[in-house]
Amino acid sequence: MCVLPTCTEEVGTFAECRDEPETCFVKAVSAAAEVCKIDMERNLLKALDLYLQELDPNSCLMDAGMLKELKIGTSGKFGGVGMVVTPKGGDYVVISPFEGSPAHKAGIKAGDIILEIDGG
């Protein structure tokens, strides 16, 4: 359990918190993170990722390492139909077709559900 700071020297007096709530909130969160050993950057990235998924369930926030891996995995020449697919609720959902790929030329779009392959 972590006890969050209230109106103190670290955060500000009651009057300061009343007059400048945003400043006091930032100070309180920073003080709580320090006291409770919270990784603020990691938690901020998680919060941003959740917010982004609310806007578009097929999106995610990528850090530099994830972006590098994506670029490596999608660069160069490769075979296949040219799309990213993910399992979701028992279905396979298209995340995105690659520009100019057979999937893109066939009109497959993000959000499409794969029902069958070659009639199988």
TrEMBL record:
InterPro entries named in the record: PDZ, PDZ_6, PDZ_sf
GO cellular component: outer membrane-bounded periplasmic space
One GO BP annotation of this record: signal transduction
Highest taxon, organism lineage: Bacteria
GO molecular function: endopeptidase activity
Domain PDZ: 67-120
Annotated Gene3D superfamilies: 2.30.42.10, 3.30.750.44
Pfam families the record matches: PDZ_6
Protein known as: PDZ domain-containing protein
